[in-house]
Amino acid sequence: MKKITVLMLVFMLAFIICPTVSADSAEDELEIIKGRIDSRLTDDLDSDTIDELDDMGVKPSDSTAITSLDIRSVFSRLSERFKASIRAPAVMLGRILAVSLIYSAMLQLSSDMTGTSKVFSTICIICVITIMADSMSSSFTALQDSISCINTFMLSYIPIFTAVTAAGGAPVTAGVYSASTVLVCEVTEFISSQLLIPMLSSLTAMTIVSAIEPKLKISGFAESVRKLTTWMLASTMLVFVGLLTVQGVTGSAADSLTSRTLRFAASSFIPVIGASVSDAFMAVKGGMGLIRSAVGGFGMLAVFLIAARPFISIFSMKLALWAGRIVNELLGLRQTAEFLKSINSVLSIAVSILISISAAFLIATAAVLSVSTSGGQ
Fold this sequence. Notes:
Layout: H1 2-43, H2 47-56, H3 63-67, H4 71-85, H5 87-109, H6 114-167, H7 171-212, H8 221-269, H9 274-330, H10 334-373
Helix pairs in contact: 4-9, 5-6, 5-9, 6-7, 6-9, 6-10, 7-8, 7-10, 8-9, 8-10, 9-10
């Protein structure tokens, strides 16, 4: 009788004391985890991105700040950035148009002198190249820095997001995400460090040589490379997204089955408190799911902001070159117009690479968030 009484007292004390202690400790641990996530993810971001995220009030572990973002304010920020970045290309466009007008006037004066016209054409293209040199160089450098920054951030972001996803009851989905995005990081590192600048510089050099000496017949090389790059990137993204979707759906089904099995085992085989353990498991899973959504949204927003800076800058350059090409075609300066078109194709290649790398990370994170959220309880 004494043993039964003691056992009943132990169970009563466990029901009274243990839930309170575990709830308090779980809340404290959750706050510690959030603090570590905040500090770890912001350490590898550049100062400009951190300032923008602070202005928006976004933190890695705060989901309410991301859901409360105003779309109009985001577009307003992008509009202000575009207005600031368009100034240098506008100045460049004005100088190009001035050179083109002088070149057109000189052609009118020397219409019967073929040799002189060729000299004027070469001088005009050299002047245009000189005008564009600084802007092109800064655009390529900004693009390389942006891709390197995205890669550095993702290398610290992937383990954290993978750990949070696994702790939220989706270890298989987390493994799929980690494997796919680490491969993208390796490819990104190779592109940014060894391939990007040499390829763009070589294409620019070929375009310049073709513009100065049209007999070489390589004016369409940049356009051909642009089409080839676009098709290659599109095919790679199709395979990547398709494979990630298939693996994500399959992994989500496996995680859902594991979760349901654990809940059934806890409810059926743990005496007295089995249902409480099952409910506690679901509560912890829901809390980690909220943190996963916050971390995922923060990572996607950070990558978007990092990629937006060089994208807007290069897009401004492309607008200026497009306007310059139109004016040169109206003036009848076909050689200069063809040169500006080829340079625009080189910038299109740069934009395509940036969009593909950014989209790979964004789509991978969004797919994991989608399948892990809808994968069942």
